[in-house]
Specification:
2 strands; membrane; Cl-channel_core; mainly alpha; single chain; transmembrane; Clc chloride channel; ClC
């Protein structure tokens, strides 16, 4: 009887937690998506705004230099608080990240949005919970639930968002104890955005594809491409970040210099397609990659690594989606395979390899593209993840997996 009562209390708590954080996540996603849509549209309508990117970088740099020493750790700070709850997620993280991401997109830095959405939602949720002095375990559940709520709202993937939240914090372990509130929060965040008619990434539904032997070897090759891209993205972003800290001692100057480099990249590449979110490139990849440069995925990777590595704010997920879709489309063209199929699978496999979240990537892919290509999608995501090694875009992600040498005696 006592255990039944205790379990009932846990279920009620999980339900309340999921609903409250889901509403917060849905509200954040709505305000964030509307603001970033305005920022990107305004930049496209007023082309001269990109020339102020170095100045925008200086503003962001000054903001973080004076007010955001801990905030600068971004999503890694949220993961660190899940592992070992401490001082908490700073309240100022929400307004700072919101403003800095909007500025980054308005003036053309190549950044995403999911990392910022996670940070904003976690900051608000953690701040609201602090007066109640939650236990360390409750705060862990709260932050995992916040990740799910942000994903559900921002990308329209309530189940995938929940699985991502359970999987991303520790490579090799899924936090089943947070499953119920995470799912509730993801669904509510998603439903809020759907009810307000906010558009997500334009993808499409894949037709049924059987996993034949001729297709399998092509998918293995695609896995290698996606894995290599993920590793290249992680390494280049790290190199840029380390070089910026080594060569530029004054923090506010780093994103200002990064803005100058991005403008130089625009000049060298001869296009502004790689600025901002660049969702039109992914849409072009799904449509057959007609008119898209062969090396577009490499350009987008460099633009994003320079932007994030020097201190512009946003996220890695959308850029990785686009890089993977572009590379997948070109790989499909070279191998004589379906370009939309390879674009969709390349999109998810690249993210799986970079984030160490293969299960979440498969589920997100199913929600975005339907179950028609489930087996090819699963095979490529898992092989790409296996090829990429343990290093990922979130350096605070723990690794619970044993090596074979340590597990076999």
């Amino acid at each position: 009887m006592h255990s039944l009562y205790a379990r009932s209390k846990e279920l009620v708590f999980d339900l309340v937690l999921g609903v409250v954080v889901g509403v917060i996540g849905g509200g954040v996603a709505y305000a964030f998506l509307r603001t970033l849509s305005w920022a990107n549209t305004t930049r496209l309508d007023h082309g001269n705004l990109i020339y102020f990117l170095p100045l925008a970088g200086l503003v962001i740099g000054l903001m973080y230099h004076h007010f955001g020493e801990r905030v600068a750790n971004g999503s890694n700070l949220v993961l660190e608080e899940i592992h070992e709850p401490g001082a908490g997620v700073p309240k100022r993280m929400a307004p700072m990240v919101f403003a800095a991401t909007a500025i980054s997109h308005l003036f053309g830095a190549s950044t995403g949005r999911e990392g910022a959405g996670i940070q904003i939602t976690a900051s608000i949720a953690d701040g609201l919970a602090k007066p109640f002095s939650p236990s360390p375990e409750t705060r862990k559940l709260l932050l995992i639930t916040a990740i799910s709520a942000a994903f559900g709202g921002l990308f329209g993937v309530p189940i995938g968002g929940a699985v991502f939240a359970l999987e991303v914090q520790e490579n090799g372990r899924i936090r089943y104890e947070a499953m119920l509130p995470a799912l509730i929060a993801g669904v509510i965040g998603y439903q809020i955005i759907e009810s307000l008619n906010i558009e997500h990434l334009v993808t499409g539904t894949l037709v049924n594809v059987s996993l034949s032997w001729p297709l399998s070897w092509k998918l293995v090759l695609l896995s290698g491409v996606c894995s290599a891209l993920a590793v290249a993205f992680i390494q280049l972003t790290h190199v840029v970040h380390r070089a910026a800290h080594s060569l530029i001692k004054w923090q506010p100057l780093r994103p200002a210099v990064g803005g100058c480099i991005v403008l130089l990249l625009v000049l060298v590449s001869g296009t502004r397609d790689y600025l901002g979110v660049s969702t039109h490139l992914a849409e072009g990849a799904f449509a057959g990659a007609v008119g898209i440069a062969v090396g577009a995925f490499a350009w987008k990777l460099v633009f994003t690594s320079v932007s994030l590595g020097t201190g512009f704010i946003g996220g890695e997920m959308v850029p990785l989606f686009i890089i993977g879709a572009l590379a997948g489309a070109q790989t499909g063209r070279l191998l004589g395979a379906s370009i939309p199929l390879f674009a969709a699978i390349g999109m998810m496999a690249t993210f799986a390899a970079a984030s160490n979240t293969p299960i979440a990537s498969i589920v997100i892919g199913l929600e975005l593209f339907g179950a028609g290509a489930m087996l090819p999608l699963a095979l490529t995501c898992i092989v790409a993840y296996a090829m990429s090694g343990k290093r990922g875009i979130y350096h605070s992600q723990k690794h619970a997996l044993l090596t074979r040498s340590s597990s076999v005696k």
